[in-house]
Amino acid sequence: MGIVRDTDRGRLLTRRAFVIGAAQAGLFGVLFNRLYNLQVKEGDRYVTLAEENRVSMRVVLPPRGLIIDRKGVILARSDKSFRAVLVPEQTRDVKETLRSLYEMMPFEDWEKKRIQKDLKKNRSFVPVLLRENIDWETLSMLELHTPELPGIVIEAGETRFYPFRESTAHILGYVGAPTEEEAKNDPLLSQPSFRLGKSGVERIYDLDLRGEPGNSHLEVNAFGRPVRELEKHEGKIGHELRLTLDMSLQDFAQKRLTAELSASSVVMDCVDGSVYSIASSPSFDPNQFTYGISKDLWSKLNNDPLVPLINKAVMGLYAPGSTFKTIVALAALEIGISPKTSYFCPGHLDFGNHRFHCWKKGGHGSVDMKKGIYQSCDVFFYHTSQKIGIDKIYEVARVMGLSQKIGIDLPNEKAGLVPNREWKQKNYKEAWQPGETLVASIGQGYMLATPLQLAVATARIASGVAVKPHVMQSVKDVKRAQETFTPLGLKPENLQFVRDAMAAVCKPGGTAAASQIPVAGYEIGGKTGTSQVRRISKAERSKGVIPNEKRPWEERDHALFISFAPVQNPRYVCCVVVEHGGGGSKNAAPIARDLLIEVMKRDPAGALPKPLVMPEGKDPVLPQKNAPATPNSEPDTQLDQDEELIMEDDELTEDPIN
Amino acid sequence: MAYHNALPSDHDLGLHDKLRNMPWGFVFLVILISSFGVTLLYSAGGANWEPWAGKQLFRMIPGLFLMLGLAMVDIRFWFKHSYMIYGVLLALLAAVAIIGHIGMGAQRWINFGGLFVLQPSEHMKVALALALAHYFHNLSYEEIGNPLRLLIPAGMVLLPVGLILIQPNLGTATLTALFSATVFFLAGVRWWVFASIGVGVPFVAMAAWNHLHAYQKARLTTFLDPEKDPLGAGYNIIQSKIALGSGGLFGKGFGMGTQSQLNFLPEKHTDFIFVVLAEEMGLIGAALLLMLFFILIVYGYVISLHSRHQFGRLLGLGLTTTMFLYLLTNVAMVTGLIPVVGIPLPLISYGGSVMLAFYIACGLLLSIAIHKDASFGRNNLD
User: Fold this and answer.
1) What is the residue-averaged pLDDT of chain B?
2) Helix or strand or coil: residue A648?
3) Regarding predicted confidence, which is higher, A193 or A343?
4) CATH 3.90.1310.10-classified regions of chain A
5) What is residue A611's predicted lDDT score, i.e. its pLDDT?
6) Which is more confident, A101 or B226?
7) ipTM
8) How far is it, in rounded angstroms, from Cα A591 to Cα A25?
9) Any A CB within 8 A of B241 CB
10) Which residues numbered 86-125 in B keep a CB inside 8 Å of some CB on A?
């Protein structure tokens, strides 16, 4: 019985075991089918996903190109630095990573806010900058804690450094992170380490200096930590930019200008347009911008009445004053007025209802054109300008490069202004007054020019061709058409006459005789200018005009000097403008003379038979380190205000002084 | 696969007979699968014996000897002591629950002085198989038809399942219940019992849902749509599927699995070890391992059905089913067919306690094969 029952159980068990076994075999089939679907049928999709998982593409920023001077001195270079960035897509949880980071490293509130903002703004594969220029200690700490900080990546980057600091700030400009607007639609610019030229040649030649970004395909693990590099396409290093600048001259100029509170200068080549130096004082240290400038320093620089951030040589507008007489003389000669024509100067000219004063109270006596220039007689030009007419003066001024943007390769160049009838009608809805021509003839009134424009005008007088200034000499590996300058279309003898008159300015009897270079063959020619920034009332004039030195700084006249050298075979041109410097002959000419000495000592154009050697003890001396005291009065150096002062002064014509 | 069934039945087989009776094909399969596992752990460790493959190998060798040693033990010894073994394991399970309660955390193992970690829930399956096989061995077909007779074995199942559930270890509890149901079914429990349980389960499941831990609920919900939470709960299974899918037909090559080697794959040395294989050796490799397991399980069936006693049949089929259920659950889990429940791949996944449990199970299967003709005596049947 037991056996039978046992056999029943056994048969049942065998039957049921086959049921279970069949079910298990079926389930094996299900597993295999699942694997087949995943691995073969949908395999391609998952291959892509695995690749996306594994490979992280990083933009490799190329080093920014060097900027060097004409001799190869490095003016701007890129130094290695490290920064910590966060790649949101490589974190498991951005907030978690940040929380851990903030526990390890102190962050200011504003930094946290910025990081939050950047996280919102950018797509998740764009790294967000956490901190720039981290030191070794922080670096190793972050590396050590990588597992707790998924998504945090240390990037080696570069920091722009300007070894000459203040001396090149205005020309080179500086680099900074692109603004939101600039970075729009350009993933390259969204890279946290990307730096964009913000001003100066850094901005103008940004695309050349930038180079081409490469990319690197990194194999990353689940924490976003790179395991190895799969592929790397090196970017192209930015092109090396060679400037026409002579750095030692530039440095000298910048330091020489510190003798004055606020001044600017241009030294250029009148044949090929190379700018050897552009200085504007006071200046700033562009390296401070690289690390992100502090709010305090920024507002200090921004609110400084001496506008250190502005390149005054290119952006500063001044009434050209008597320097403009060279152009009026040219206009006179061009319409056929004989240089022998002379007028008597009693110290003033009565015209209409007004009395127009000459700067010399007693008058110059009999004055011809040459004396009119070297003695800077206002009365001579009052007479002559009536014959020329404002439109012809305007025409010649335009030929000389005034009242227009010259087209130098620096940003924010100002156009300046030389008035004419049409302009007056258009802007003031009034007819041009004959008396205004008199004011214009001595470079006052509506007239405004930048120091660069005055330098260009001087260069054109000196060379007879339409020279255009430039600071870029060459961009390595980039060919650019050589610029040739067309003749001005003025009679060569007329230009020669003006040059001779300017030479006389720096000879005994001339207004700048004291600033001559006393070495034969290296003499200079020039023209002084003093532009008035305030009105002299009749009452004041009757009591005697207060000398510049006794007036508050901001009421003093601007001092100007344009010059070229050597007189026999001009090559170098220099223009100096000293804001509120007093007189052109006294304050601007000595600086110009020093700059011309220095440029001829170096002879960057190689145009001189041999470089200038100054007699023992006659070399220019740089001013003491201590900068002059800042003006003790309200800020006024706003150039616009100067403009207004001059423009609104309808009685100004009574009081030109030079 | 040669199976020796020609030997005479004898109460006391000599060592020589036992060795001759030993299904060496089965032993070879176990060694093959275990070595497969060590190889995979070597790859998962970045082509290195550290940190897993070396240790696994050092456990594998004594484990195999233990298996062979257990095979030599007379099957009637296991029959005699099955309730006692069950009782010890149940006590240990209860101890774990109590320690876990005191420790205020999920507790699944007992640590013997840091030298040896015992996970009673893993060994409970073997003990339960012994106890159930013993119980049903003593019941006639008619007696099994009596529902009252099922109360004791139901209790034997529900006690450990309950203790495992409160650990909490949903996966192991479910598998234990499923395997027990299979043994019930094989023992001859009537269809209607299973039918009424099938009706009752949905209600129990609904009640259970409300008692699930949040992480278990999360596992179940992300299972339905893991892409919904790609960085959170769904991360594991998505990465696992990517690894499997990108392996393709031939795989990326041994040690070349990007998902495994770059740590995208979670738990690659334990629950997800199968994925390392499928990524690096493709469908071919995965199918090969499945095939080896299939043969092993068929072998288990053959051994069990050749046993002349009900105890051996039920125990053998129970253990084989356990092995199958583990394999099924693990592979289904990593391929996204079912929720991630933390079930390791038998003989392959890293971990001493689980490995030991499977070697013991294999040892018992071998013992059944060797002692297939053992006589239990009549009085035990009635």
Assistant:
1) 83
2) helix
3) A343
4) 56-243
5) 92
6) A101
7) 0.88
8) 102
9) yes
10) none
